[in-house]
Specification:
The structure holds two protein chains of two kinds.
Chain A: E1 5-6, E2 18-23, H1 26-42, E3 46-51, H2 62-67, E4 70-74, H3 75-79, H4 87-103, E5 109-114, H5 122-140, E6 144-151, H6 152-164, E7 169-170, E8 177-181, E9 189-195, H7 200-210, E10 218-229, H8 231-243, E11 247-252, H9 257-264, E12 270-274
Parallel strand pairs in A: 1-7, 2-6, 2-7, 3-4, 3-5, 5-6, 9-10, 10-11, 11-12
Antiparallel strand pairs in A: 8-9
Helix pairs in contact in A: 4-5, 7-8
Chain B: E1 13-19, H1 22-38, E2 43-46, H2 49-59, E3 66-67, H3 70-73, H4 77-93, E4 99-103, H5 115-127, E5 133-140, H6 146-155, E6 158-160, E7 165-167, H7 174-180, E8 196-199, H8 203-213, H9 219-239, E9 245-250, E10 254-261, H10 286-293, E11 296-302, E12 305-313
The chains are: A alpha/beta, B alpha/beta.
């Protein structure tokens, strides 16, 4: 089971977990990444630390680097020198790295990266949102775990929300909602947390840039962990589906805000499936 | 062809009647229903239990009258309008030339706050305009307070008694009536200081504040209240004037929330009881959704500005 929710620790994370970590001090992120990777070392995973500018190398990695279990690299070497990320190519790079780790006898791969320099501009973030959406599905189905660090002071609130909301787990005060790869066979995406006029623009941006793909004429949205959504934000999902000529099939709990709105305000392109716990 | 007093009248024929005995009540309602049945028109009886039994006793079973549970149908004015519009639409689709309907509109004599039902009585002149409906709203002057009777006189274009149906000279333009009106009813809980008061909350902070105070409500009541609070704060921030103040009075089985801003409140006279006239999902629905979900919604205009009062849970 992947970890989903708001977290303030990286302790106990396993393969398939994907965390967006907002930090205000580079040293803090280095320490958090160190903990995250140390857990991987003890679980016999290969670990990669992708250092951001000036964030240094976590203590305790050196002997693992010598043994080949750990690798330290730079953002430029791993992702490119500040150009918008190319999602397919980047995921291919990680897929190769996972294969090598498994071939070398490790249980999987664990990557911690300070991604701040990759999401500073609007153009970078647009590419990054698509990448995060695709890589989250990749992580969900591959023995890999990822910790993406974002410098809160460099990015500001709005940009931080855009890039961090695409993680199933994230730090407090990063984004009030999350959009991530859904568990279960329907294979759409999951929405969790709260969506209202305050962060509706972020949802609109993320839908536009991540552009989740329909399957068999529908986009399945697991909204069972969505605790609040207003009718205009729900309408965004309907409009997104309609623009693609498909139906958004939104799975929601009985008596939830999502179900109550859909009962009152029928929307073209939206169908709510009531799912009991 | 419409039968009876509404013959030749386009749209909704909205009538009241005042009575102070069962005989007077039946003197208006029995011929009203019997003539409709004789003309082959759909007849709907939506009274509270007392009056509903009087009607049943006269007509017996198999009369063709459609009995609606008045208590349930008139739980909220916005849901009553939605329910009637759907019902009238079905009858019109099936070719009904006229639909006759009568029911007990709630007021303090029947245990409900009047304010939003006063608005209902004005709004339905517009809301049912597209249907060939003849509706009688009889009021029992033994239980209806004088201020209720006074507003009933201002909101019904026609008035009936056992002998005749006449135009009501006291009828006022519904939009003007609504623009000039302010809901003044307050919950007894408001006699005490609010347990929580927040100035300038975001929508998320407002919801979190209310959720903290209202944790004992059933999930649907709480979710409905959170939707309404969120819409109220959104409207105050977008359309109102600062400062926006949220106040919460938690009670045993119910919660009262007010959101006040310094602005004049919504200008559209039918706002709240009817959805804004835009496509679904395109905005303008928030206040209407709140009216569908809360146990009471009051819209007060006063010196402090505009206050929307939202109550969830058990009103009595």
């Amino acid at each position: 089971m992947r970890l989903s929710g708001v977290v303030d620790t990286v302790g106990g994370l396993g393969l398939h977990d994907h965390v967006g970590w907002a930090f205000t001090l580079a040293d803090d992120f280095r320490a958090i990444a160190g903990q995250f990777l140390a857990d991987g070392l003890s679980r016999r995973e290969r670990v990669i630390y992708v250092a951001g500018a000036g964030t240094g190398v976590p203590a305790g990695l050196n002997s693992a680097v010598a043994s080949g279990q750990a690798e330290v690299t730079s953002v430029a070497a791993m992702y490119g020198a500040g150009e918008p990320v190319e999602a397919e190519r980047q995921i291919g790079t990680f897929a190769d790295a996972v294969e090598r780790a498994l071939a070398d006898g490790w249980a999987g791969l664990r990557v911690a990266a300070d991604a701040t320099s990759l999401v500073r501009t609007e153009r970078q973030r647009a590419a990054w949102m698509r990448y995060e959406h695709l890589v989250d599905a990749f992580i969900a189905g591959t023995p890999i775990a990822g910790l993406c660090g974002f410098d809160r002071r460099v990015l500001g609130e709005a940009a931080l929300a855009e890039v961090s909301c695409l993680h199933p787990a994230l730090t407090p005060d990063s984004s009030e909602f999350r959009l991530y790869s859904a568990p279960g066979p329907a294979a759409g995406f999951a929405l969790a947390g709260e969506i209202d006029p305050g962060n509706r623009p972020t949802l609109a941006t993320v839908l536009r840039e991540a552009h989740p793909a329909p399957r068999d004429g529908r986009i399945t949205v697991d909204a069972t962990a969505l605790t609040f959504i207003d009718h205009r934000s729900l309408a965004l999902l309907a409009e997104y589906a309609t623009a693609r000529g498909v139906t958004a099939v939104v799975q929601a709990r009985p008596g939830s805000v999502t179900t109550m709105i859909a009962d009152l305000v029928p929307m073209g392109g939206l169908e709510v499936q009531v799912v009991s716990p | 062809m419409r039968s009876g007093a509404a013959a030749g009248h386009p749209g909704y024929f909205h009538e009241t009647a005042f009575y102070d005995s069962a005989e007077q009540f039946l003197g208006v309602i029995v011929p009203f229903f019997a003539d409709g049945l004789a003309a082959g028109e759909p007849v709907i009886s939506a009274f509270a239990p007392g009056n509903q039994s009087l009607v049943r006793d006269v007509f017996g079973t198999g009369s063709g009258i459609r009995f609606l549970d008045g208590g349930e149908h008139y739980s909220r004015p916005a849901t009553a309008i939605r329910g009637y519009q759907a019902l009238f639409g079905e009858y019109v689709t099936r070719g009904a030339p006229q639909i006759r309907v009568a029911g007990d509109v709630p007021h303090p004599g029947l245990g409900a706050p009047w304010d939003w039902w006063a608005r209902y009585e004005a709004v339905v002149n517009h809301a049912y305009h597209d249907f060939p409906v003849w509706g009688i709203c009889p009021y029992d002057t033994r239980t209806a307070p004088a201020d209720v009777v006074a507003e009933v006189r201002r909101t019904h274009p026609h008035v009936a008694n056992a002998h005749r149906h006449t135009d009501n000279p006291a009828f006022e333009d519904p939009a003007e009536f609504l623009r000039a009106r302010s809901d003044t009813w307050r919950d007894p809980l408001e006699q005490g200081r609010p347990a929580l008061e927040v100035t300038g909350p975001t929508t998320a902070q407002a919801r979190a504040t209310v959720a903290r105070a209202a944790g004992d409500l059933p999930a649907e009541d709480l979710n409905g209240l959170l939707l309404a609070v969120s819409e109220a704060v959104t409207n105050a921030l977008i359309h109102g004037l600062a400062p926006v103040t949220l106040r919460v009075w938690p009670g045993p089985r119910r919660v009262v929330v007010t959101v006040t801003d310094a602005g004049p409140g919504p200008r559209a006279p039918y706002a709240g009881l009817l959805p804004a006239e835009r496509p679904a999902g395109n905005g303008g629905l928030g206040l209407w959704i709140s009216h569908q979900m809360c146990a009471f919604v009051g819209m007060h205009r006063g010196r402090e500005g505009f206050t929307i009062r939202l109550i969830a849970g058990d009103l009595t």
